[in-house]
Amino acid sequence: MLRPEHPSARSLSGLVADFGLDTQGSLDGVYVTGVTLRSGEVQPGDLYVGVPGANSHGASYAAEAKAQGAVALLTDAAGAELAREVGLPTVLVDSPRAALGDVSAWVYRTSDHPPLLLGITGTNGKTSTAYILEGILRQLGLVTGLSTTAERHIGDLTVVSRLTTPEASEMHALLARMKESEVRAVVLEVSAQALSRNRVDGIVFDVVAFTNLSHDHLDDYADMEEYLEAKAAFFEPERGRRGVVSLDSPYGERVVDLSRIPVTTVSATPGVVGEWNLEILDETAAYTEFTLTGPEARSLTTRVPLIGWHMAANAGLAIVMLVEAGFELEAIGHALGDDGIVTYLPGRTERVSGDAGPSVYVDFGHSPDAFLNTLAAVRKFTPGRVIMVFGADGDRDATKRHEMGRVASEGSDILVVTDHHPRFEDPASIRATLIEGAGLADHQAELIEVSPPEKAIRHAVSIAKEGDSILWAGPGHQDYRDIRGERTPYSARAEAREALRESGWQ
Ligand SMILES: CC(=O)N[C@H]1[C@@H](OP(=O)(O)OP(=O)(O)OC[C@H]2O[C@@H](n3ccc(=O)[nH]c3=O)[C@H](O)[C@@H]2O)O[C@H](CO)[C@@H](O)[C@@H]1O[C@H](C)C(=O)N[C@@H](C)C(=O)N[C@H](CCC(=O)O)C(=O)O
Ligand SMILES: Nc1ncnc2c1ncn2[C@@H]1O[C@H](COP(=O)(O)OP(=O)(O)OP(=O)(O)O)[C@@H](O)[C@H]1O
């Protein structure tokens, strides 16, 4: 976890006075330098926050936290009772999770002179839009910070992410570390889970954005309406000052209606008119070129080095966010120059093959809508057959599996159904559901079931010819597979390259 390297110590009595909180035990002379809700990550001088969770109450790990150097505990009444014997000075709150953001902002002083803060939510395209934004901000000459599902960046420093959106204590520590590195603009990917679980509390974004909403995460939310409401909670004055909403999914209009902050809209969908509209001019295997036109006929023509209309849509959203943040469209155009946006997006329709042989793309798509768009993009540049290799997450929304199988079959010529992260589920039964879904499609791709995935990609490469494309959807940038709770080291990109080498293509 990234933390400030030179944290300042803050008096816990000051926190209690500022927030008007109750306490147990003496706080005299207690100073805190950090905050965490994970006992295993406590550093000397930390305030340990005991959060009640789905599996256990964090306060039951207070002894471990103390042994690692925690100087105080913040928890609820039940937590205080659980940790009574540990003897840490204790601050009492009704909901430790709800308090975590503001308390962390106070400890790390992240509300003092914050950088430009840009946040993105939506089902698909958050990571892509975040990287595109980071790219443009760098081209504008700013030192940037980034937090996504794939990586967190502080200027040129990169670390691999664990959650899409870190817990609030980690988020504020990250922001404090970014401040030490003189980061001027920060782009944060914000999941629905983060909004529902207080992970971006204590942060007021300058601009918040919505990409789209489609079937996903219905293991966490009762239905699409509840999922939408979780996302729309981003468009509240305590979260963001201004909003940008993509109208590319029908839910965009709903977010506009639900928003309680000023919003502007952007559309890349023909026939759907936003305040900003994007028209695709050219699509090649190396870039997508587009014109973005806004109010008062302001317009910008540029390109993004990614395939598919959806990536141009993400780029349009990113540019409108910057305009809303106060950048002139002309200045953005000038910074992008003739070559357009410079970005490298790990594991999103990432081409891992060389010049000879089939094109092989590794992608992070794991929802029907992501499959639809990436398959359409790959099809455009495939003179031969589209071969899709995919599996589905175990212990995650199982209701989307039929639709994933159906969309995959509709969009490809050959389907290789394999495993992804089975977690605690039986991989064979996940594959069976995907195959059932494929059977519901109007277009029946030729189907073969191959397990495990290292065999599946080798099979796909062995049947592919020059001019064919292989889309391996699911693993993207990830460097592990979760099998029965164990994170086994595994890189789809490395496996795909190896399979190509073994077949003599690289
Ligand atoms: C459903 C969910 O979000 N759960 C999160 C939640 O877990 P929980 O409430 O069950 O916590 P718990 O296991 O009961 O533990 C209670 C407390 O004790 C602490 N603890 C526990 C054990 C221990 O030894 N020491 C210790 O300190 C825990 O840190 C926690 O604070 O709090 C934990 C502590 O921060 C998170 O790690 C955990 O995320 C889990 C790993 C997760 O997989 N979350 C996913 C669903 C998620 O958030 N995904 C989204 C979006 C993904 C996407 O877009 O596709 C994301 O933003 O990543
Ligand atoms: N605007 C978009 N509309 C539909 N699909 C998209 C869009 N942008 C990206 N995708 C596809 O969705 C998948 C995930 O992309 P990306 O990682 O950018 O989204 P995300 O919202 O960050 O997803 P996650 O939260 O799972 O990380 C990829 O297959 C990508 O090609």
UniProtKB/TrEMBL annotation:
Kindly give the SUPFAM superfamilies that the UniProt entry links to this protein: MurD-like peptide ligases, catalytic domain, MurD-like peptide ligases, peptide-binding domain, MurE/MurF N-terminal domain
Q: Which GO terms describe its biological process?
A: cell division; cell wall organization; peptidoglycan biosynthetic process; regulation of cell shape
Modification N6-carboxylysine, positions: 231
Tell me which Pfam families the record gives.
Answer: Mur_ligase (PF01225), Mur_ligase_C (PF02875), Mur_ligase_M (PF08245)
Keywords of this entry: ATP-binding, Cell cycle, Cell division, Cell shape, Cell wall biogenesis/degradation, Cytoplasm, Ligase, Magnesium, Nucleotide-binding, Peptidoglycan synthesis
Modification after translation:
Carboxylation is probably crucial for Mg(2+) binding and, consequently, for the gamma-phosphate positioning of ATP.
The answer to whether the entry has keyword Ligase is: yes
Q: Where does ATP bind?
A: 122-128
Q: Where does this polypeptide localize?
A: Cytoplasm
Q: What class of enzyme is it?
A: ligase
Mur ligase N-terminal catalytic domain residues: 32-104
Where mainly found?
cytoplasm
Q: Where is the Mur ligase central domain?
A: 120-321
| InterPro entries the UniProt entry points to | Folylpolyglutamate_synth_CS, Mur-like_cat_sf, Mur_ligase_C, Mur_ligase_C_dom_sf, Mur_ligase_cen, Mur_ligase_N, MurE/MurF_N, UDP-N-AcMur-Glu-dNH2Pim_ligase
Q: What highest taxon heads this organism's lineage?
A: Bacteria
Q: Mind telling me which GO cellular component terms the entry cites? A: cytoplasm
Q: Tell me which residues make up the Mur ligase C-terminal domain.
A: 347-475
- What is the stated purpose of this protein? Catalyzes the addition of an amino acid to the nucleotide precursor UDP-N-acetylmuramoyl-L-alanyl-D-glutamate (UMAG) in the biosynthesis of bacterial cell-wall peptidoglycan.
Q: What family is this?
A: Belongs to the MurCDEF family. MurE subfamily.
Q: What protein name applies here?
A: UDP-N-acetylmuramyl-tripeptide synthetase
